[in-house]
Amino acid sequence: MSEAEHADAFVFFGATGDLARKKIFPALQALVKRGALHVPVIGVARPGWSLERLRERAKESLEEHGGADPVAFPKLASLLRYCEGEYSDAATFDRLREILGPAKRPVHYLAIPPSMFATVVRELGRSGCAENARVMIEKPFGRDLASAQTLNRSLLTVFPESSIFRIDHYLGKEPVQNL
After folding, report:
1. Residue 109 φ then ψ, to 5°
2. Per-residue pLDDT for 56 more than 70?
3. Is the pLDDT of residue 94 over 90?
4. Edge-to-edge order in the sheet of strand 41-45
5. How far is the C-alpha of 173 from the C-alpha of 133, rounded, in Å?
6. Each residue of 56-65: b (16+ CB within 10 Å) or e?
């Protein structure tokens, strides 16, 4: 992958949720420790939080799941940004576009309820946040074949197939490692 193809921002929806606490923050710290994370990490979640509170949540998460590394955690904390808002509010995505700044190839990680996937993807497209971006869907992909097909159609209205990654964290780590 050329330098031009590498992601230049990591946006994760559900930044204050359980999946972020249990899995995402520890994974982000591990990437920092390996020297593989140097881009802004933008957490998107409900109103009422702040960047400082998100950093505290990240540290608490790491303390619960192996410890905050004395070198890696400060670097991770410096990369963190916060975008508050409701996923159904267009203004949230306009703020996200501003926070992304010069980023041209963000990765959007949807660690949110599946019922919000289509709404978030539609708003990513409308706001310009999906241009040259990739999207990662975390959770079971639909409840059945029909709902999975409906969800897939909504994703394809905004992202090309080559930019969509579907991950079910209940199936294990192999699919993630093969990205």
Report:
1. -105, 115
2. yes
3. yes
4. 80-84, 41-45, 9-13, 106-110, 134-138, 164-167
5. 23
6. ebbbebbeee
